[in-house]
Structures are given as C-alpha cells and as structure tokens.
C-alpha cells in the first residue's frame, strides 16, 4: 500500500492531474462511450443514469485504489442494481503497463459486449480516468472500429487530455495475434509496429475474444 501511495503522489504532480475534491469528471468519447474518473458516491450513479443514460459501468480499479480514496464501493454497486445499471470490474494495476497490457483483452471484451447490447451508454473508469480507462477505450476503437492506433489515440486525447500507455495497447494487440506463425518477439519490433493492422490481422486478433467471458 505504501508503494501505491508514493506512486499516486507522484502522479498528482504530473501534467495530467486528478483532483479528487472536485468530484467525478468525465468525457463523452462516442455516442455510446464515456471515459471518466471514479464515481465517489451513490449520487454519482444517479447523475450518470439521469443525465447520460448510462446502462453499464466498467470499473478498472483494484481494491487498493478504492481503499486509498475511501470509496464505499458496496453502496455504489447497490445503487447500480437499484437503477438497473450493469456494474462490471476488470481490475488492472495502476502505473503498471504490463498489468494493463495483460488486462486489456478482457476489459475490451466487456466494453464491446456492453456497447453491442445497446441498452445505453457505457461508463469506463479507473481512478482518475487518465490512464487505464482511456487505454481501454482506445484499444476498443482500434480493435473494433476499423481505425488505426494513432487515430484512435489522438481522437480520444483531443477530447480528454490524458496520458494512456500506447505501448501497452500495442503489446496487447501483439498478444492477441497469437496464431500468427510469422510473429517475431515483441521486443524486436520497431516502435511503430502494431499501430496499424490489416483486415486479416484484425480478424486474427478478434478470434481470442470469442472465448473470453463478457463480464
């Protein structure tokens, strides 16, 4: 926990700052996708339902994130149930690109399922909505919306100034192409590799999603 506290304090001094005292903040990325910071109280869930027609919440926080900010997650989940909002968790370790890389496929799978259901908007959040959550949204746009990684990255960050780890998304894309017999070790690839993928590579990358649990 002490390690986490130190990392969080460092993050507060970065150009992209999280101001917990200002409450929940978020950005509409597409007509079905919102990226934001953590809901702090049940009233935030009321707001998301009433003002944004949110039907799904995808929470990327670990338990220690929630404990650090003293969030009563049980009351938030209960309010989600009361309002018929589907609350999903796909925890990834904050400030850890490897954890993000390994967790992206399942998180994006849940996001794609929720958007495909079409019952309302999906609210994707981590703690600040500056790292893990935008990375999941960018990976979704890259993998499922037929746009390249740089376009997806620039589109999101132009709407919500943030610093998601692009290398983690590239690494996860590489990992998904597990059936490609010509794949070289990721460390040997140039920096721009897997920023754009062809249709056959996109199809190959989507195959593992078929065996993933949706939520």
Automatic annotation (TrEMBL):
GO terms assigned for molecular function: carbohydrate phosphatase activity; phosphoprotein phosphatase activity; starch binding
GO cellular component: chloroplast
Domain Tyrosine specific protein phosphatases residue range list: 102-161
One GO-annotated biological process of the protein: starch catabolic process
Domain Tyrosine-protein phosphatase: 25-182
InterPro entries given in the database record: DSP_laforin-like (IPR045204), Dual-sp_phosphatase_cat-dom (IPR000340), Prot-tyrosine_phosphatase-like (IPR029021), Starch-Glucan_Phosphatase (IPR052832), Tyr_Pase_dom (IPR000387), TYR_PHOSPHATASE_DUAL_dom (IPR020422)
Hydrolase in keyword set: yes
Hydrolase in keyword set: yes
A Pfam family assignment: DSPc
SMART domains per UniProt: DSPc (SM00195)
UniProt entry keywords in alphabetical sequence: Carbohydrate metabolism, Hydrolase, Protein phosphatase
Record-linked PANTHER family: DUAL SPECIFICITY PHOSPHATASE, SUBGROUP, CATALYTIC DOMAIN, PHOSPHOGLUCAN PHOSPHATASE LSF2, CHLOROPLASTIC
Protein name: Tyrosine specific protein phosphatases domain-containing protein
């Amino acid at each position: 926990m002490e390690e986490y506290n130190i990392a969080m304090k460092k993050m507060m001094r970065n150009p992209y700052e999280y101001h917990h005292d200002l409450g929940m903040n978020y950005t509409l990325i597409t007509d079905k996708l919102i990226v934001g910071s953590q809901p702090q109280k049940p009233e935030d869930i009321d707001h998301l339902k009433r003002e944004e027609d949110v039907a799904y919440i995808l929470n990327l926080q670990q338990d220690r994130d929630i404990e650090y900010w003293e969030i009563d997650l049980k009351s938030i989940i209960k309010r989600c149930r009361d309002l018929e909002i589907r609350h999903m968790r796909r925890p990834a370790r904050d400030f850890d690109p490897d954890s993000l890389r390994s967790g992206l496929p399942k998180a994006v799978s849940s996001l794609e399922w929720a958007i495909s259901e079409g019952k309302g908007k999906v609210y994707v959040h981590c703690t600040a909505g500056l790292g893990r959550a935008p990375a999941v949204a960018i990976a979704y746009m890259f993998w499922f919306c037929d746009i390249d990684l740089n376009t997806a990255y620039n589109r999101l960050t132009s709407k919500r100034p943030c610093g998601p780890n692009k290398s983690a998304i590239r690494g996860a894309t590489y990992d998904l192409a597990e059936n490609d017999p010509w794949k070289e070790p990721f460390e040997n690839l140039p920096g721009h590799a897997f920023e754009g993928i062809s249709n056959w590579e996109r199809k190959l990358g989507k195959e593992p999603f078929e065996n993933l649990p949706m939520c």
